[in-house]
Every structure is written in C-alpha cells, then in structure tokens.
Design brief:
α3 packs across α10. The chain has about 750 residues and is of the alpha/beta class. The chain has 4 domains: about 100 residues, Beta Barrel (Lipocalin), CATH 2.40.128; about 230 residues, Rossmann fold (3-Layer(aba) Sandwich); about 140 residues, Rossmann fold; about 170 residues, Gcn5-related N-acetyltransferase (GNAT) (Aminopeptidase). It holds the Pfam family Hydrolase. GO terms for molecular function: hydrolase activity, acting on ester bonds. This is HAD-IIIC family phosphatase. InterPro entries: FkbH_domain, HAD-like_sf, HAD_sf, HAD_SF_ppase_IIIC, SGNH_hydro_sf.
C-alpha cells in the first residue's frame, strides 16, 4: 500500500501510468473535448482548461477528477483496456447518474470514443508501455523572455487592467495563474470614459496594462469587404482609425497623465492571412492585415509621446507562439482580434444533423502558453523600466565563443578547410553591435596571443562583421581571466554584478564566478547565447538617452584620460583638463533631461549618497511638492561626458546626490555641491543653513566624504542616516580649475 498527497492504493494498478500518458477526454459517444489532457504528479490537470476539471487524485483505487473549488466532478466507475489495448475509463458524476464521460489513453483517431467493454470497477490492468517522450523545448514564455540573467526576484503586487473582452480573459486567467499578484479590471470599449479614480489608490499599482480593442478602432465597416473596392474607402478608414486611436489612447491614459502611473499599452494582433480582394492587392491598404500593421506603427508613435508609457508587442508574442494556435480570425470576423477558446461556443447544445466536434480537434489552442507569455512580457517590461539587474557590459571569450574552434589550432593556413562561420557565430557578431547600440559596453577576455589574434582576425571573422576596434576593452593574454575582468570593471567603472561573462569553458566560467559571485556567466550552449543577450529583460533599455548611445565613446576617452593622469602631477593634470560644467534645473517631468536624470538615479551605485531608487511617480510627486532636480553635464578636452549627475534638492536640503563614476576624481563632485548650495540659498533670499543627507550602502564608499570635503560638518547620525550641515555663515569649497558654462 502506498499513500501520498495525490495517491492511495496499490501502485501497480494505476498510479505509475497516469502521469506518463496523454489522455483523450469527452462525453461517451461524442467527439472528444480534448486529446491533450495530462495528469501532473502534483495533482493538477493540464492540456485542457475548464473549471470543472482542474485537479485529480486517487481514492480507494479510483481516479477522481475535481473542480476548481475542489469538489468532486468525475469518478472512474470502470477501468478496462479496449480492443486497441488503450487504457480506458468510464467516468460518472454525482451530479447526474445518467451522464458518462470517457478518459482514454492516447487515442489513435478522432472518431467518437467507444463505450468501454464490460469490466468490474477497479479491475487491475497490465501496465501499458509508456509513451515515448518527445523533446519539449523551452516553454514559450521563457523562450521569448529569457530568465537566465535574472538575479533579483520580481515582486509585482498589483496590476490595473484596462481593456475589452480580451483583457477580461487576461483577468480571469491571471487571477488563476498568478495568485501572488492582485489584479483590478476596468472595462474599456469604444471611447468610453474611465472612472475618475481606479478601483484602488494609484500608488498601490506597479503598472497598468492597457488594451485598446481593434474593433472600436476600425469599426464594423470592414465587415462589408466589397467596400474596399470603392475608391478612397481604405484611406478614409485608416484616417478615421488614427483619430479613434488618438481619442481612445488619450482617455485610457488618464491615470498616467494625472498621476504618472506606469503604463504598458498592447498593440493589435495582425490577422493571420491577408484579406485583399485579389492577389495583386495584397499588402495594400485594401488588405486588412496591412491596415492593422499600419495602425500598429501609428499606435507605437503615439504611445511614445507619453511619459512613463511603453508599447508591449503582443502581435510579436502571438506570431512567435503561432497565430494559428492563438487568434480567433479563422472563425470570427477580422477585427475581433481576440484569443480562440471553446468557452463561447454552444458545445453542440442545439440539435444538428451532424454533431459539431470540439474546436480543439480542428484547431489546437495554446491559450495557456499565450496567457503566460503575455504576463511574462509585462513583467519583463516592468523589470527593464525599473532597471532591475540591468546589464552594463558583456565580456566575451574568443575560441568556441565568438567563433567555432580554436584560432591557434583550427585556423592554421595549412589546416583548411577552416570551421564554418555561418549559423551561430554570425549571430553573435551581429549581437555585439545591437548591444553597443543600446549603450551596453562589450569587451574581450581571452587566453590567447594578442599579436597572433590581431594578425589572423580577418581570416577568422569572415565576413568581417566585427573588428577588435568594436570592443571598448580588449584583454587577450595569458593572465587569469578573473584578473582581466577585474581590470575591465575598473576601466568601465562598474561592479561585477552589472557584467555578463560569455565563455564556452565551464572551468573558466566557474573560476570567474568563484572570484566574482555576482557576475552572470553563460556560453555553454551557443544556440542559447544570442537569444539570452538580445531578448532578456536585463539587456533592454527603456529609453535610449544621448549619454547611453555615446557611452562607448566616453569610456574610450576616459581610458585615454586615465593614461594621461598617470604620467602627470595631479594639479597639473586637473588644470590641463579644461573642464566645464553646465547646469539644468528640472521642475517637471516633461523636460527633455528628465529621462536621463531618472535613468542615472536608478543605475548609479557607487556615487549615490542614499542608494534610493525612484519611480517615475515618486519623482513626479517630489517635483509637485516643490522639489527640484539639479542636473549637470561635464565636458573636458578629451570628450563631452553628457549629463552625468543629478542632485535632488528641496527647501534647504540636499536629499540625494548621484554622479557617474566616469567623472569621479576630477573634483567635479565638490564643484557641483557649491552650485547646489548657491541654488538653495538663492531660493531663500540669503544665507541659510544647508542640510545634506547620506546613507551608507555597501557600494557608495566614493561619495561618503563629499560633504566634508566641501566644508560641511557632520551632525549626530540617526536612523542609519548621516546628516551634514553647512552653516549659514560658511561658503563651500570651489575647485578653481573648473569653469561653469552659462550658455
């Protein structure tokens, strides 16, 4: 006798086979409802989604199928093998003794399920041969949105859903599948007005998810397809749709506009096939598929006009999973644009000459996979916007990582033919440039002879899609890789936790992660590397700023600057920089510098006086309450570093001070404090005491003495917060080698 959470009885009768099989399920004598039902070892029913069949267990040698609320729905009354040797169970229900369903192992065809042969209840059956396992691959949600670079768990507490019946489906499924997250839903159809306030206080929501219904945008005019043959009809339809998008998006974004609530707006799912009246017309505006693609382009441009709002590409999700498994336009009208599922069908309740088979018999549906991917996309977008575990640099090995084989062995002139470069190597080379475009630094760390690699590079990297000059730092030597990576981190002014190390050798990866436990190391499977680096949330950039796009250039200039510093006296070096600082005061979130200021705040660890991360909404409230952001740009004879620092000031207090480490050590930090003091005192028409706060974090050693160096004195600490004051009769230290740009 075996007794577990989901089984009680003799293991040789049923239990070992139940979780190893795929089952057909349906009413006796009718077409099956599904051919993909599975019983999982933890007591769940998957492959078929209905609240009447959610869980299973064995009790007194009988299989029980349970409802979503745990109540009994079906009980195995008879268990036999049919004439084809398939394990077959006759199920009855306490709700109606005359109703019987069949659960049958791996049906060979789609004909109605035969009633089982007579047998006594609970008859012991010989164990059938287990079905051969098929490769399962990576789940759709994980495939599209890799979790390989995640370190910090995502805690999404509450989400506001705004949309049509498609969003209602999301609500139903999200609540079942993600019980740790609370969801509120506001129905939204044609130009309706949202309530003055959402169901809960705005501050409780992590984000809102907005879905504008396609039907409301293009209206039911498209039903009369012959009208597309009328001159000007398609263009009128398109222009009207643009106008509807303007109005509906503006109305749906009311909580974003009023409170700065982070908003994700899903685009429209493009129909699977074209609808043009002729083959010649495919791709024109007379084709609904082409029209919806144009609407998606327009919607994307309009979402970009809002602050703290981002498009989520639901069409890409549906395309990747397969629209034939998701979209309902093989049954419904084109503009419905929703997910196909059986729930809205009549299940054959109306008498017909021929019974209607279940929808999934003709059209397998991946509703669960689609819903999981939709939510995963939203969560990953949230991670990207909040810069959670953001990657700042990717360091590549060379042999068997950037190309196939070893350069010193497999690419010798006499060793032709050389390994092929098509496939994953070409994909990695392109990946490098896309990372650079996002402002992510790339470097090389390889145990090789530098001169030999440089000499043979063009032979190995063919076509020449990437060069050594494309890497911001190159360490090709026989030094231990951990030491080289340490030097690269110093050059880039970043912590190892912001680095991804790509190496095919598990020994090298282990050595590096042993030296730097926070570093993320991948590369064992070259088929995964490109997808992880390009698609993971941690390598996405919410908004590309000027500074982000020029980061590589600035790092190269910084390396040149440090080489010059090492050869000169400190005072002479500082005087030679010709350093200029220009200031901008931000008082509202619409100013163009705001995005960079928020990005810098949330990605800076070392020179960050409190370590606090700010949401868009928090900064908006800070500004509304009278706070200001004092931002500054730095330029010297080597480069223009862009906007590299921001001080949060309010009243007579410097609340927080963050600065990029690219300009650390140039006495910029002291010069800027003096400017902040002047700004605060000018707001009070005279000299007043200025307060500055500092909270020590594991990473912010470089900024802990900045206020003392500028003339502040320290007061007693309280609640783990250090407080400094510059008395009203004191003036701060101002470095003389720096000038203020007043243009």
């Amino acid at each position: 006798m075996i007794e577990t959470k989901t089984f009680r009885g003799q293991s040789t009768i049923l239990s070992p086979q139940l979780t190893e099989m795929t089952w057909t399920f349906g009413a006796e004598g009718q077409f099956p409802l599904t051919t993909t039902l599975k019983l999982t070892p933890d007591g769940k029913i998957v492959g078929y989604s209905h609240p009447n069949e959610s869980f299973w267990r064995i009790e007194n040698h009988k299989l029980l199928l349970l409802k979503e609320n745990g109540e009994l729905m079906w009980r195995a009354a008879k268990v036999v093998k049919n004439q084809d040797g398939l394990l077959t169970m006759l199920l009855d229900t306490p709700e109606d003794p005359n109703t019987h369903f069949i659960l049958q192992q791996n049906p060979a065809n789609s004909a109605p399920i035969p009633a089982p042969e007579q047998a006594s209840a609970g008859s012991a059956m010989p164990a059938p041969a287990p079905a051969q396992a098929q490769p399962s691959g990576i789940p759709d949600a994980e495939y599209l949105f890799p979790a390989d670079l995640e370190v910090t768990p995502t805690k999404v507490k509450k989400v506001l859903l705004i949309g049509s019946c498609l969003t209602a489906l999301y609500l139903e499924q999200f609540q079942k599948r993600y019980p740790a997250t609370a969801f509120d839903y506001v129905p939204y159809n044609f130009v309706s007005v949202l309530p003055p306030a959402p169901p809960a206080p705005v501050g409780e929501y992590d984000f809102q998810y907005i879905q504008i219904p396609l039907r409301s945008v293009i209206t039911d005019r498209i039903i009369w397809g012959f009208r597309f043959n009328e001159a000007g009809f398609a263009n009128t339809l398109l222009q009207d749709a643009f106008a509807v998008i303007d109005v509906m998006l503006d109305a749906a974004m009311v909580y974003n506009k009023q409170h700065g609530l982070l908003a994700f707006v899903s685009n429209f799912i493009v129909p699977q096939m074209n609808s043009a009246s002729s083959i010649h017309g495919r791709g024109s505006m007379n084709d609904i598929a082409a029209l919806v693609r144009r609407l998606n382009e327009y919607l994307s441009s309009k979402v970009a006009e809002y602050n703290n709002a981002y498009l989520v590409d639901i069409d890409a999700v549906a395309s990747s999973i397969g629209k034939r498994f998701v979209l309902d336009d093989m049954i419904y009208f084109y503009s419905h644009g929703a997910v196909a599922y059986q729930d809205w069908d009549d299940f054959g309740s109306i008498a017909r000459n021929e019974p209607i088979p279940p929808l999934e018999q003709s059209y397998p549906i991946k509703r669960d996979a689609f819903v999981d991917a939709v939510f995963r996309q939203a969560v990953c977008t949230y991670r990207s916007v909040k810069q959670i575990d953001q990657v700042k640099a990717v360091i590549f090995d060379l042999d068997n990582t950037l190309w196939r084989g070893q350069i010193a062995e497999h690419y010798r002139p006499e060793a032709r033919p050389w390994p092929r470069t098509d496939g994953w190597p070409l994909g990695i080379w392109e990946t490098i440039h896309h990372l650079r475009a996002r402002g992510i630094l790339v470097a090389i760390c390889s145990k090789n002879d530098y001169d030999y690699v440089k000499e043979r590079w063009a032979d190995v990297v063919d076509p020449n899609f990437v060069s050594l000059d494309d890497f911001a730092s190159v360490k090709i030597n026989w030094t231990p890789k951990a030491q080289n990576i340490s030097e690269i981190c110093k050059e880039f002014n970043i912590k190892p936790k912001s680095v991804v190390f790509v190496d095919d050798n598990p020994v090298e990866r282990a050595a590096v992660t042993s030296a730097f436990p926070e570093i993320r190391a991948i590369g064992g499977n070259p088929y995964l590397t490109r997808r992880i680096l390009l698609w993971a949330a941690e390598t996405q950039v919410a908004r590309l700023t000027e500074e982000s796009s020029r980061r590589e250039e600035m790092i190269r200039s910084q390396i040149d600057r440090e080489e010059t510093r090492s050869s000169m006296d400190r005072d002479d070096f500082l005087a030679s920089l010709n350093c200029e600082v220009s200031f901008t005061i931000i008082t509202n979130t619409d100013q163009p510098e705001f995005g960079r200021a928020l990005e810098l705040t949330n990605k800076t660890n070392q020179f960050n006086t409190t370590g606090k991360r700010w949401s868009f909404e928090e900064v908006a409230d800070f500004l509304k309450a009278g706070g200001k952001l004092l931002c500054f740009r730095v330029k010297d004879r080597f480069t223009d570093y862009g906007l590299v620092g921001v001080l949060y000031v309010k009243g007579t207090e410097i609340v927080q001070y963050v600065m990029s480490c690219r300009v650390l050590g140039m006495e910029i930090e002291e010069f800027v404090v003096a400017e902040a003091v002047q700004l605060l005192r000018s707001d009070h028409n005279g000299n007043v005491d200025i307060i500055a706060l500092l909270k020590e974090t594991p990473d912010n050693t470089p900024c802990r003495e900045v206020y003392l160096r500028t003339g502040f004195r320290e007061l007693l600490s309280s609640n783990n917060m250090r407080t400094f004051v510059l008395d009203s009769d004191e003036v701060p230290f101002i470095p003389l080698h720096i000038t203020k740009n007043t243009k």
